[in-house]
Amino acid sequence: MKKWISILLLVTSLVVGNGWTAPENTEPQEEPATTPSDENVPSVPKAFISEVLTDIGRRATRHADEPDVDIVFVVDGSMKMMAQVRAIERQFVHLLTALEEKTLNYRFAILGYRLVHGQPNTKVIQWTYDTAAMEKHLSYIRRVWKGDVEHGYGLDALMLALNRFNINPSAVTQFIVLTNSPLRTVRTQEDAKKQVIRDIINRCRIDNVQINFIGIPEDTQIELAYRTGGEWYPVNTNIQETLAYDAHTYREALLKLGAIGILANLSRDYRRLNMKIDKIFEDISEHLIENFSDEDEIDIVFLFDNSLSMERRVDAICNGLDRMTEMLDASALNYRLGIIRFYAQIGIQGQSTVLVTKPPLTPRQVKIIMRRPKIGTEHLLDAIVNGVRRLNTPDGRNLVLVIITDEPTTGTIRQHGTVTEAIKICLKARARIYVLGGLRMSGLVLDADRFQYRLTVLTRGLHYLLRGAPMFELDFE
Fold first, then answer.
1. pLDDT tens, 408-446?
2. For residue 71, what is the enclosing H or E element?
3. Taking Cα atoms as reference points, which of 267, 263, 103 lies closest to residue 170?
């Protein structure tokens, strides 16, 4: 019975050293971190299309009283996108409402892209101040212009939009890319995709363009959003709003999907969602061995959630650490261990404690710290912002962070623990990040914590669900 309950939860979400020479009996000393103050609220992607459009509109107008705002929609016009295009069309008023809170100086443009009999095809709607025309053009894409079942070339469409529309340098320009497929290019040269991505980022920096994605959690979309100052939002979380407008279409879609379709959608992420903790540590070790040579010097630092809910997982985590060090030692990797332990008082205003114990530590010392008494709740953002920057990893060493928490990401309002700041610190440290993480509720949908997943994508790491995470426990394989 538990097996089928777990599968139903997955359907609802639709997701996703050579050691140290110090004596073994030396007690490691944890170094408390300072906690600077900040009033910023962590940026969390919104759950519904109405909230996404509101968020984009408010971000576009936040830095000036009467800004000029240009919004460009880059829309995947394939058959599979029609429900999502309809949701944008019907919720378009929320973007207008957010913009008009601070400005009336805004205009829109659209670039649709699709495949027609295997050939790329685009539709360009030049700048317009007519909001009714915008809804009409979105409706046309959905009802008339829709392309093949196969998705088009999103990277080429983005580059075309940057070149095709006259960008006003004095305006705040926001691109909104709507797609449920990976971005790709028609170019076939070696490293063509990387070159197009670089060209897009460079052009956005020149023209001060921010790219927002209502898309899927692929590394290209998340990287382009972050590198241009935009945001990434999940495309599939608008399903409840689509339901409200067209319940019959939704029921038909569920019937077409069926049990086989459900399992097919789960198959890609199922392995990492259902791995035992020792297997996760083995998987991470194999990935490290593949990506580093015995000539590399590596600092592996655990960001360990020391909150009360972690108590019953400590033994399995320590066993996983033993397996990791066994594999890394056998591969002759030159690594050192460290740990950042974090916990907080209950409540969003609860004071965070971040204790940093820098490398080098022995595996035994790391386990001593992991087994210390558990306290309160967690604020992962505070741990990253106030802990990682204090590691001061030497330039010649590679930093690997292993985040272990069974909770979705939080941070205190009054402390300097924001999503943007945390990402900047990790990228500045050139860290490769692995996450054994938790789940979060997004509206009525249960899905993977997007910040934790985004960190692993941006740093070329791996993301896993920590077994026994609250609300979601798979006890079978």
1. 887 654 445 577 788 889 988 999 999 998 766 544 444
2. strand 69-76
3. 103
CA separation for the pair 404, 423 (Å, rounded): 17
Contacts of 153 (CB under 8 A, 6+ apart): 113, 120, 184, 185, 186
Q: C-alpha angle 368/372/374, rounded to 5°?
A: 150
241 versus 235: the higher-pLDDT residue is: 235
| Neighbour tally for 276: CB within 10 Å | 15
| Distance of alpha carbon 401 from alpha carbon 383, whole angstroms | 12
CA distance 395 to 401: 16
Going from the C-alpha of 14 to that of each of 158, 264, 286, the distances in angstroms are 27, 11, 28
List the structure tokens of 419.
């999503």
Q: Give the tens place of pLDDT for each residue, 29-76.
A: 565 554 433 333 333 343 478 888 999 999 999 888 889 999 999 999
Positions of E strands within 132-222: 172-178, 209-215
Angle (nearest 5°) at CA 92 between 91 and 96: 125
Q: Three-state DSSP class for 29?
A: coil
Which residues have C-beta within 8 Å of that of residue 250, sequence separation ≥ 6?
239, 242, 243
Q: Are 461 and 433 in contact (CB under 8 A)?
A: yes
Burial letters 11-40, b for 16+ CB under 10 A, else e: bebbbbbeebeeeeeeebebeebebeebee
By CB atoms closer than 10 A (0-12, 13-18, 19+), residue 168 is middle
Give residues with Cβ within 8 angstroms of 273, minimum separation 6: 10, 464, 465, 474
Mean pLDDT of 80-87: 88
Task: Read off the DSSP letter of residue 28.
Answer: P
Give dist(CA 339, CA 369) in Å, integer. Answer: 8
**Cβ proximity of 394 and 326 under 8 Å:** no
- Residue 180 DSSP SS3: coil
- In the three-class reduction of DSSP (H, G, I as helix; E, B as strand; rest coil), residue 340 is classed as strand
Of 415, 321, 308, nearest to 368 by C-alpha is 321
d(CA 403, CA 380): 9
In a 13 Å sphere around the CA of 390, the CA atoms on its Cβ side amount to 22
> Residue 381 is encoded by which pair of tokens?
């953002």
Q: 66 burial class (0-12, 13-18, 19+ CB within 10 angstroms)?
A: exposed
Six token digits for residue 208: 């001060």
The pLDDT value recorded for residue 204 is 94
CA dist., res. 267 & res. 275, Å (int)? 13
What is the C-alpha separation between 147 and 120, in angstroms, rounded?
10
